């Protein structure tokens, strides 16, 4: 990675930025699995939402310590906020998978 | 197993024949939409050499300007490229139709309605819009026709009574909990929730994404048109001024490289005042 100490935009190497976009996939998969977990456990209403928040925090913490080595500003353009933010897409995905597994397991649909 | 007093027991066949098929169909239709849009896109028109050259000249000067602040080019290279471009812009050597003769009134930008090239761009935008909208309507109609009048699923989260009319359409029970919903609500859940899956399967720029529908299309159609028929002469003139500004901003990356290397190895002579 070649981001500079200063805010020089030209020093960001596009290929590396693209490679780091696997972050998006990790967020999507983690929201899928969190949805499945919430559904299978039969969590309702707020407990489900809390699980989503907790899983987001856990995923971000793992990426923060293992991949970014404690310096998210160096690897992700928006810094810490972009690392933690799951995005609207993943929130809806969580709800979809949560509903699906809840229905399969608990409603005997 | 359910601890609340009112719990419905639903036939497992509903799950097999409604829940999974709706999801599967929506995934497949999304993928189909993406590939149809790709097939419908006409390849971009190839420009003549002169037209391409004038566009590229502009891009060259823009690249030079953006990298001026921490430029990898040493001063002699930078100033020679900059002077060369300035001179070419001033005399109009890169223009598509040659240098403008004195007394010629420059042609204004072509009207997008009459210029056939820009028209193609707008048609392409509208075509993709149609392709996006039609499958959604068809699937909604299909669901409303075949999967109507029964309870499909229980939502794990509660909703207000206002949603009852939309999500329990066809089920005439005024007292039932809003959490029991019909198939149309499953359609909506899928509609919003599958975007992430499309991004995983089809890559970031996929055309199956419903979240991008509202924001992308109104601007895409207008962005394509103005890029073509622009007055390059005027653009070149502004570029000359811009090049002068970035001349002031210019600084070479390797300016004090000798001092930096010496400092790194702790061999900087003490005689220099720091």
Automatic annotation (TrEMBL), chain A:
<feature type="transmembrane region" description="Helical">
    <location>
        <begin position="89"/>
        <end position="108"/>
    </location>
</feature>
<keyword id="KW-1133">Transmembrane helix</keyword>
<dbReference type="InterPro" id="IPR029008">
    <property type="entry name" value="EMC6-like"/>
</dbReference>
<dbReference type="GO" id="GO:0034975">
    <property type="term" value="P:protein folding in endoplasmic reticulum"/>
</dbReference>
<keyword id="KW-0256">Endoplasmic reticulum</keyword>
<comment type="similarity">
    <text>Belongs to the EMC6 family.</text>
</comment>
<dbReference type="GO" id="GO:0072546">
    <property type="term" value="C:EMC complex"/>
</dbReference>
<keyword id="KW-0472">Membrane</keyword>
<feature type="transmembrane region" description="Helical">
    <location>
        <begin position="49"/>
        <end position="68"/>
    </location>
</feature>
<dbReference type="Pfam" id="PF07019">
    <property type="entry name" value="EMC6"/>
</dbReference>
<protein>
    <recommendedName>
        <fullName>ER membrane protein complex subunit 6</fullName>
    </recommendedName>
</protein>
<dbReference type="InterPro" id="IPR008504">
    <property type="entry name" value="Emc6"/>
</dbReference>
<feature type="transmembrane region" description="Helical">
    <location>
        <begin position="21"/>
        <end position="43"/>
    </location>
</feature>
<keyword id="KW-0812">Transmembrane</keyword>
<dbReference type="GO" id="GO:0000045">
    <property type="term" value="P:autophagosome assembly"/>
</dbReference>
Automatic annotation (TrEMBL), chain B:
<feature type="transmembrane region" description="Helical">
    <location>
        <begin position="131"/>
        <end position="153"/>
    </location>
</feature>
<comment type="function">
    <text>The EMC seems to be required for efficient folding of proteins in the endoplasmic reticulum (ER).</text>
</comment>
<feature type="transmembrane region" description="Helical">
    <location>
        <begin position="184"/>
        <end position="202"/>
    </location>
</feature>
<dbReference type="GO" id="GO:0034975">
    <property type="term" value="P:protein folding in endoplasmic reticulum"/>
</dbReference>
<keyword id="KW-0472">Membrane</keyword>
<comment type="similarity">
    <text>Belongs to the EMC3 family.</text>
</comment>
<keyword id="KW-0812">Transmembrane</keyword>
<dbReference type="InterPro" id="IPR002809">
    <property type="entry name" value="EMC3/TMCO1"/>
</dbReference>
<dbReference type="InterPro" id="IPR008568">
    <property type="entry name" value="EMC3"/>
</dbReference>
<feature type="transmembrane region" description="Helical">
    <location>
        <begin position="17"/>
        <end position="40"/>
    </location>
</feature>
<protein>
    <recommendedName>
        <fullName>ER membrane protein complex subunit 3</fullName>
    </recommendedName>
</protein>
<keyword id="KW-1133">Transmembrane helix</keyword>
<dbReference type="Pfam" id="PF01956">
    <property type="entry name" value="EMC3_TMCO1"/>
</dbReference>
<dbReference type="GO" id="GO:0072546">
    <property type="term" value="C:EMC complex"/>
</dbReference>
């Amino acid at each position: 990675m070649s981001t500079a100490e200063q805010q020089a935009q030209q020093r960001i190497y596009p290929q590396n930025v693209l490679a780091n976009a696997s972050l998006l996939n990790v967020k999507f998969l983690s929201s899928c699995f969190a949805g499945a977990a919430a559904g299978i456990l039969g969590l309702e209403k707020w407990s489900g939402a809390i699980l989503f928040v907790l899983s987001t925090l856990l995923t971000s913490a793992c990426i923060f310590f293992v991949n970014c080595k404690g310096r998210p500003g160096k690897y992700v353009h928006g810094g810490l906020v972009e690392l933690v933010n799951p995005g609207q897409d993943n929130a809806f995905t969580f709800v979809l998978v949560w509903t699906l597994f809840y229905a399969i397991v608990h409603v005997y649909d | 197993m359910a601890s609340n007093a009112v719990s419905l027991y639903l036939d497992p066949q509903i799950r097999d024949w409604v829940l999974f098929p709706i999801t599967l169909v929506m995934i497949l239709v999304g993928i189909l939409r993406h590939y149809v849009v790709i097939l419908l896109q006409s390849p971009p028109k190839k420009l003549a050499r002169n037209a391409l050259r004038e566009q590229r000249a502009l891009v060259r000067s823009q690249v030079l300007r953006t990298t001026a602040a921490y430029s990898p080019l040493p001063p002699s290279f930078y100033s020679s490229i900059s002077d060369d471009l300035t001179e070419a812009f001033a005399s109009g050597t890169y223009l598509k139709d040659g240098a403008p003769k004195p007394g010629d009134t420059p042609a204004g930008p072509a009207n997008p309605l009459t210029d056939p090239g820009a028209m193609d761009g707008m048609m392409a935008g509208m075509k993709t819009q149609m392709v996006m909208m039609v499958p959604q309507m068809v699937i909604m109609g299909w669901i409303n026709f075949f999967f109507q009048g029964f309870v499909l699923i229980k939502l794990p989260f509660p909703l207000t009574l206002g949603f009852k009319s939309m999500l329990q359409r066809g089920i005439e029970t005024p007292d039932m909990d809003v959490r029991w919903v019909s198939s149309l609500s499953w359609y909506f859940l899928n509609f919003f929730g599958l975007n992430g899956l499309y991004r995983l399967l089809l890559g970031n720029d996929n055309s199956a994404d419903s979240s991008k529908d509202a924001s992308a299309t109104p601007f895409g159609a207008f962005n394509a048109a103005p890029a073509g028929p622009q007055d390059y002469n005027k653009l070149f003139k502004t570029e000359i001024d811009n090049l002068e500004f970035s001349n002031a901003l210019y600084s070479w990356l390797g300016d004090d490289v000798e001092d930096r290397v010496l400092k790194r190895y702790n061999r900087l002579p003490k005689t220099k005042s720091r």
